[in-house]
Amino acid sequence: MMRRKLVAGNWKMHGGLTQNAGLLDAVRDGMASMPDVDCAVCVPFPYLAQAQQKLSGSNVKWGAQDVHQSDKGAFTGEVSAAMLRDFGCSYVIVGHSERRAYYGESSHLVAEKFMAAQKAGLTPILCVGETLEQREGGVTEAIVAEQLDALIQLAGVQALRNAVVAYEPVWAIGTGKTATSAQAQEVHTFIRRRVASHDGQIASGLCILYGGSVKANNAAELFAMPDIDGGLIGGAALVADEFLAICRAGQI
Ligand code: PGA
Q1: What mean pLDDT do residues 1-26 have?
Q2: Which listed site, 16, 73, 118, 235, has its alpha carbon 20 to 30 Å from 197?
Q3: Which residue of 102, 125, 132, 232 sits with most ligand 1 atoms within 8 Å of its CB, as the best mutation to test the pocket?
Q4: Which parts of the chain are beta strand (E)?
Q5: Which residue's CA lies nearest to atom 3 of ligand 1?
Q6: Does the structure show a pLDDT above 80 at 1?
Q7: Rounded CA gap, 243 and 237, in Å?
Q8: How far apart are CA 153 and CA 194, in angstroms?
Q9: Residue 207, beta-bridge partner list
Q10: How many degrees, rounded to 5, is the angle at CA 189 between CA 207 and CA 65?
Q11: For 87-139, where are the alpha helices, taking DSSP H only?
């Protein structure tokens, strides 16, 4: 099955109003001539209004990097999915490995965040992936399975109908060490098969991104793999030309 590619930027805690303005303009203008690839940028919360203002009416969507699992309440410092919708978000990343590692987010909590996002009409991007130690210990599949199964148990496989999964091996994030296309394809196949064991149709339509040091010079090879449906891009999403080159690789 030929799935349309999605290239999503994850800006993390970078940028500022001035810097973002140039980046958003350049991405919006560059994407105008690439109707065959889906593109989104996930920006820090304070810049959602700026992203909305710059990207409305273009073919670049925007989103956030985290969301709270509750609809509303006394949760100082947190942001709900409905608030993200207020700023026109289409996507939200849940369960990024930095959230799991530094803020102790469990797979169960991530599944709750996923459901809150979906309930509000957002498309969640569920991140899964193993550490280097786990890969070397031969438990990559067990780790990815646990992260995926937590969602399927809580929400049912139907939840994956309007969702994106991003396989991001922790050892490849921000390290310049990309998984080889074969290594990534192997885990992507595993994810798709696991979903297929519940529902074949949902599995074959599922958008599975690869993330971890994707650059302009390795994107085409990764995106050529049959189960890699695009990328979640960190560092390279902060440089317009580099990010647009990755998007261009998604046109194949
Ligand atoms: P990277 O980050 O592209 O800088 O490795 C990817 C991510 O964390 O989503």
Answers
A1: 96
A2: 118
A3: 232
A4: 6-10, 38-42, 60-64, 91-94, 123-128, 164-167, 207-211, 230-233
A5: 234
A6: no
A7: 5
A8: 13
A9: 164
A10: 40
A11: 97-102, 107-119, 132-136
How far apart are alpha carbons 132 and 134 in whole angstroms?
5
The pTM of this model reads 0.98
Length reported for the chain: 252
CA dist 242 and 236 (Å) reads 6
| Ligand 1, atom 9: closest residue by C-alpha | 234
* pLDDT tens-place string over residues 183-230: 999 999 999 999 999 999 999 999 999 999 999 999 999 999 999 999
Give me the architecture of the 39-249 domain, per CATH. Answer: Alpha-Beta Barrel (3.20)
Asked if 167 and 191 touch (Cβ cutoff 8 Å), the reply is yes
Question: Looking at ligand 1, which atom is closest to the CA of residue 10?
Answer: 9
Cβ 33 vs Cβ 243: under 8 Å: no
- The token pair at 136 is 């070397």
Instruction: Establish whether 98 is a catalytic residue.
Output: no
| Arithmetic mean of pLDDT, 58-72 | 98
Whether 197 and 125 have beta carbons less than 8 Å apart is answered as no
Give dist(CA 238, CA 53) in Å, integer.
19
Given 96, 105, 130, 188, which residue is catalytic? 96
Closest residue to atom 7 of ligand 1, CA basis: 234
Encoded tokens for 159: 């939840």
